[in-house]
Amino acid sequence: MGEQTEVILLGGRSGVGKSSVGHEIHAQLARGGVRHALVDGDYLGMAYPAPDALGIAESNLGLIWANYEQHGYTHLVYSQTVSVLYSRELREAMGGTRRAVGVLLTSTDETACARLGQREKGSELAIHIERSRSMARKLESESPGWVHRVSTDSRSIQSIASEIIDLASWT
């Protein structure tokens, strides 16, 4: 079954807009009648005490995707900070997808910090900002060459989502 599957792997630092863009991709695909599922992978391994986050996230994705696939879904939008670094593992967890389109959302530190400041109201804002900066460096240096870079600075969520849908040819 997995050989028919296509997945958009949406990655990027905290504050870059992954969740917002993922929801807009979902809305645009739904309006276009494209059968798909949206999974925010950042929650698939969120537990305390922290498990091996990637291992449990992969396992959970495999279970969730098997259920979607059983109901006839072949297209997945998967949003997770490091998804573009683990495309092979994530595709294997889904039963071996035929095609993956990797998208690394990017932004300046200023943009990400401003967005995080709007979202994070607790005592850990400084920690989130530093993690975001560190992750941006890691993602930029370690993302494979086939991963598309899409800037979210000074752009509408709608235009970013449309660009990604075009990259995936899911129209």
Quick structural gist:
Helix content is 47%, strand content 16%. It is α/β, with parallel strands linked by helices and 171 residues long.
Features:
single chain; 171 residues; alpha/beta; 47% helix
Structure in words:
The protein contains 6 helices and 5 strands. With 171 residues, it is an alpha/beta fold. Strand 2 (37-40), helix 2 (53-70) and strand 3 form a beta-alpha-beta unit. It is globular and about 45 Å long. Helix 1 crosses helix 6. 47% of the residues lie in helices and 16% in strands. Strands 2-3-1-4-5 form a 5-stranded parallel β-sheet, with helices on both faces.
Rg result: 16 Å
- What's the shape? globular
Run of helices and strands:
EHEHEHEHHEH
Number of DSSP E strands: 5
Strand content: 15-25%
Query: How far apart lie the N and C ends?
Result: 22 Å
Provide the helix percentage: 40-55%
Total helical segments: 6
Low-pLDDT parts are: none
Give the topology.
Layout: E1 6-12, H1 18-31, E2 37-40, H2 53-70, E3 75-79, H3 87-93, E4 99-106, H4 109-119, H5 125-142, E5 148-151, H6 157-168
Parallel strand pairs: 1-3, 1-4, 2-3, 4-5
